[in-house]
Amino acid sequence: MTSSSSRSGDSAIRKILSSLYSAAVEAILPRTCAGCGRVGEWFCPSCQAHLRADVVDGCRRCGGRGASGRSCHRCQQLFPPRLNRVRAGFIYDGPIQRAVQRFKYHGEYRRGYDLGERLFQRIESASLVPSGSIDMVVPVPLHPRRIRIRGFNQAAILADAIAPCLDIPVVSALVRARDTQPQVRLRADQRRENVENAFVVDDRHLETLGGSRVLLVDDVLTTGATLGSAAAELQGAGVSRIYGLTLARDR
Description:
Blueprint: H1 3-28, H2 45-48, H3 73-78, E1 85-91, H4 94-105, H5 109-126, E2 136-139, H6 144-150, H7 154-166, E3 174-176, H8 188-195, E4 199-201, H9 206-209, E5 213-221, H10 225-236, E6 241-249
Helix pairs in contact: 4-5, 5-7
């Protein structure tokens, strides 16, 4: 058998094993609708109809309401000159909120890939990402202790889901230097303090980052403090343009 035939056979075996594994997982842990619990789908048709897209109709940077064509007060405080633009796929309520919570806090990492695919669909339908203007996707990192507890980084799963669709690589360029408190428990001013200097750039990626255009990905946008802090480190490493993207926006 030639080496090419051997590789082809190995690839076919891997595909078969992968299919068998997926079928076994689906049988043991079937998909359930995040909205109503219906078995067989991540979102049943009824709950999917209640997913609210985050419509860009305001701030030119974050898309938030109340500052049509201008930067809103929050962006003026947090983002300039760190982030060139921030967009979210959905409004953080209803079925999408329950899906994120099950994804993050109940270990349903497979749900994250479905959410990532839905985010990419929103990227395409609403032009959330500048076409041809991104060199890499950088997920907002978790601290190693948090990853040990949760088992995964939710932002990395979202990044892994959308990057192949955009035909660009995922680069884990940031490291969480401090184990910060969960942002959900804090006020807006406390959130900024909590994540200040929380990130550092991985030295192995310094050369790659210089002059690059980055899509910075996280799960939920609330005050923008986390994205702003992460973007500051990327900017310090010489990144030329930084676009923020989250699955959902908490309004």
